[in-house]
Amino acid sequence: MPWTQTLRPSRRSLLTGAAGVAGGALLAGCSDGSGSSDADTGVPLERRMREAAVRDSERLLERYDATAAAHPDLAARLAPLRGAVAEHTGALAVVGPVKTGPSASPSVSGSRSGASPSAPADAAAAPSAAAVPAKPAEALTALADAERSLAEARTVALAGAPGELARLLASVAACGAVHAYLLTSTPGAAS
């Protein structure tokens, strides 16, 4: 090989390196250094992840409700997307007995509305209509940003999730990305 030719890493070596770095970051982030585990908290990882996902979905539902209340003309457009988020909340909900332990939280029911019993009071507070932008287009953009942000967070979280929950989070994240697109696209426009 002539010296004038530059050496470039292959795509495979770049992907392998990136996967190694990401895996190392995940492993480093899995421990807080205290040596605590699921057995110490009394609440398994999957249950904690599901409860957090339900709380996030409930906050997103509240954003949909606040946007529809502030802009009644958008309610029909938002209804199917809100319905899908409500379905995601139900699918992510933890059902069953709670393990006993020092920090075990109450079970999240299969209910599709209301705040999670384990959510802090301030996190469960619905966003006020004042938090919704005054212009309908800006309100849709803000809602799309919330959908996109949650989809990205779920995509990151699925790396540490147990198998079935990872698949569910991936599916819900994909739906969130589609919702973000639909919220910012022009209805009825030809593609």
Please describe the topology of this protein.
Layout: H1 11-29, H2 38-41, H3 45-70, H4 75-92, H5 121-124, H6 136-157, H7 163-184
Describe this structure in words.
With 191 residues, this protein is mainly alpha-helical. It is built from 7 helices and no strands. The termini are far apart. The relative contact order is 0.13.
What is the percentage of strand-forming residues? under 5%
Largest sheet: none
Radius of gyration: 21 Å
**Average pLDDT, all residues:** 73
Concise description?
This protein has 191 residues and is an all-alpha fold.
Defining traits:
single chain, 191 residues, mainly alpha, elongated, disordered N terminus
